[in-house]
Every structure is written in structure tokens, then in C-alpha cells.
Design a protein that fits this description.
With 139 residues, this protein is mostly beta strands. The chain contains 1 helix and 8 strands. Bound molecules: zinc ion.
């Protein structure tokens, strides 16, 4: 691994949370996002829920998983306001009501409404590459 730079000056701001890529395994996930819904996976073997979506359970490695539609609510676990970014200025970890925590963006929310533990609801917006991405707004 390369050493971190001595200065971050001039580096590109992080403006988009990492996202799963669209492929046959994740097609239902992206189809649901296009309908404004967020799908995660639940394991038939151990019962755990997980995000990001993948065929195998990351807890017990079972290939027996099902899609689960989230109710679209959660809470901010942690956030960072990226003052130099133009479009998606708040990067956050949001813990879904169903349990998993995902890296995402907070949108349409005043900065003074942000706090760890704040309740949020799902909104689907285009990500940096134009594919739909789950984001959240403070409620
Ligand atoms: Zn499992």
C-alpha cells in the first residue's frame, strides 16, 4: 500500500460513496432503486441481513439468500460535510432500520439538521456515474 500524501491540497474531493456495480447478481437491486426502493439481502441459513447485495452471505458463506425490501428509514451513524464538494456535500454512514450500515450521501437537508442519531428516510438519486444510488434526507 502506498503511503498517504504529505498534503491533501489539490486532491479530488470524495463526492460519491462507493457503490455496487450493476451485473446479473445485482440487477434486482438496481431495478428496485429505479422504483425508489432499497433492497438488501437476508440469509436463509443464519438469518443475518447484509448490505451490499451479493450472492453469498458474508456471515456464514451460505449461498441461500433472499432479497428484502427496506422500509426506507434509518439513522445517521456518522457523517462528514465535504465543504469543497459541489453536488453531494454530506458523506455519511446510515444504519438502516433493518440493521446494516451503509456509506451514502445525505441530501436535501440543512447542515444544522445533521447529527449522529438523526432519523433519515431513503431518496434515490443518480450517483456519480448516473446509475441510481440510495441516499437519505433528514426527517
Ligand atoms: Zn448467513
Amino acid at each position: 500500500m502506498a503511503a498517504p500524501p504529505l498534503s491533501w491540497k489539490g486532491s479530488s474531493p470524495v463526492s460519491q460513496a462507493p457503490a455496487p456495480s450493476e451485473n446479473p447478481e445485482t440487477k434486482p437491486y438496481f431495478d428496485a432503486l429505479r422504483d425508489g426502493k432499497l433492497l438488501i439481502k437476508t440469509c436463509r441459513q443464519c438469518g443475518q441481513v447484509h448490505f451490499y447485495p451479493r450472492a453469498g452471505c458474508p456471515f456464514c458463506f451460505s449461498a441461500s439468500t433472499d432479497w428484502l425490501e427496506c422500509n426506507g428509514t434509518g439513522t445517521i451513524y456518522a457523517y462528514s460535510v465535504l465543504r469543497s464538494a459541489k453536488d453531494l456535500p454530506v458523506l455519511a454512514y446510515v444504519t438502516l432500520s433493518e440493521g446494516p450500515t451503509l456509506m451514502t450521501s445525505i441530501v436535501d437537508s440543512p447542515v444544522n439538521a445533521l447529527s449522529n442519531g438523526a432519523h433519515v428516510r431513503l431518496v434515490v438519486r443518480p450517483g456519480a456515474d448516473g446509475t441510481p444510488a440510495p441516499m437519505f434526507t433528514v426527517i
